[in-house]
Write a structure and sequence with these properties.
The chain is mainly alpha-helical and 312 residues long. Helices cover 64% and strands 0% of the residues. It is elongated, with a radius of gyration of 28 Å. Helix 10 runs antiparallel to helix 11 and helix 10 runs parallel beside helix 12. The protein is built from 13 helices and no strands. InterPro entries: Ankyrin_rpt-contain_sf, PGG_dom. Keywords: Membrane, Transmembrane, Transmembrane helix. Pfam families: PGG (PF13962). It comes from Erythranthe guttata (Yellow monkey flower).
């Protein structure tokens, strides 16, 4: 009864129940799944139950015994991390690239806890953990590569258009230039300074965004690139693209005011309202993706000590 209950709790990620069962029946921690003979922490890794796996951090020196246990096929804990996560766990994460990132995070975390001599140990089929990971995640890696390339290609086009527009706007300033001095007609206007600064920021931000997306498109797309390199570039690319769109709208609004609105102040109201539309649209459409990227790349992560209470 205790054995079936602890495996059920492990699969569901209910670490508090696991703690209670082990506290009442200490020997049940050595229980294994029939036939495959997979121990508790193997099941936790295979089912991607991070809350149960984190209990290792609350264990005494007994944890080294559990880290080196192998199942009937000679798979150790790192082999289990190399297996593809259950579909319901992958579906909790949006985008194949972020799913691949989470799988790499799991593999690296388990690898960190393992004894160095066990990290390249082969199972009975002669496969190392790294070989298992590569085989199991081949399709997900291809899907992640396609997803991130499609996203980058779309954003590259937008960034290139903004670079072109902002560069042209810097040369052909609103109102033109004075014939005798060559200085802009509206150079003494405060709003012109707003235009100039906004145009420059938008140009530099869009150029940075363009370079980031180009670097993504020319990446080698190795498995480890999905861990931090590609997400970081995508974060910088999306962040600077948002910045360039925002300041492009500010520069456009300043131009309209300089040309049409100095004697008609009411023009500012509809212009400001319409200028907010593309910025707001970008926030609603792309900000959730940007927030997920920042959280999964720079956030506290899912692997951490949950309490100071000793576990076995």
């Amino acid at each position: 009864m205790a054995t079936s209950s602890i495996f059920a709790a492990t699969n569901s990620g209910n670490y508090e129940v696991v703690e209670m069962i082990v506290e009442a029946f200490p020997n049940v921690i050595y229980a294994v799944v029939p036939l495959s003979r997979q121990p508790i922490f193997h099941v936790a890794v295979l089912s991607r139950s991070e809350s149960v796996f984190n209990l290792i951090q609350q264990m005494s020196d007994h944890k080294y015994v559990h880290l080196d246990i192998e199942d009937d096929d000679g798979n150790n804990l790192l082999h289990a991390a190399g297996k593809l996560a259950p579909s319901h766990k992958l579906n909790e994460i949006s985008g194949a690239a972020l799913q691949m990132q989470r799988e790499m995070q799991w593999y690296k975390q388990v690898e960190k806890t393992m004894n160095p001599s066990s990290r390249k140990r082969e199972n009975k089929q002669g496969k190392s953990p790294n070989m298992v990971f590569t085989e199991e995640h081949k399709k997900l890696k291809e899907e992640g590569e396609k997803w991130i390339k499609d996203t980058s290609e779309s954003c590259t086009i937008a960034a290139a258009l903004i670079v072109t527009i902002m560069f042209a706007a810097a040369i052909t300033v609103p109102g033109g230039n004075e014939s005798d001095t060559g200085f802009p007609v509206f150079a003494r206007e405060k709003v012109f300074l707003v235009f100039a600064i906004s145009d420059a920021i938008s140009l530099f931000a869009s150029t940075t965004s363009l370079l980031m997306f180009l670097s993504i498109l020319t990446s080698r797309y190795a498995e480890e690139d999905f861990l931090s390199n590609l997400p970081k570039r995508l974060i910088i690319g999306l962040g600077t693209l948002f910045l360039s769109i925002t300041f492009m709208m500010v520069a456009f609004s300043a131009t309209l005011y300089l040309v049409f609105g100095r004697k008609n102040a009411w023009v500012l109201i509809p212009v400001a309202a319409l200028a907010c539309l593309p910025v707001t649209s970008f926030v609603f459409l792309q900000f959730p993706l940007l927030a997920d990227l920042i959280s999964s790349t720079f956030g506290p992560g899912i692997f951490r000590k949950q309490s100071n209470r000793p576990f076995y």
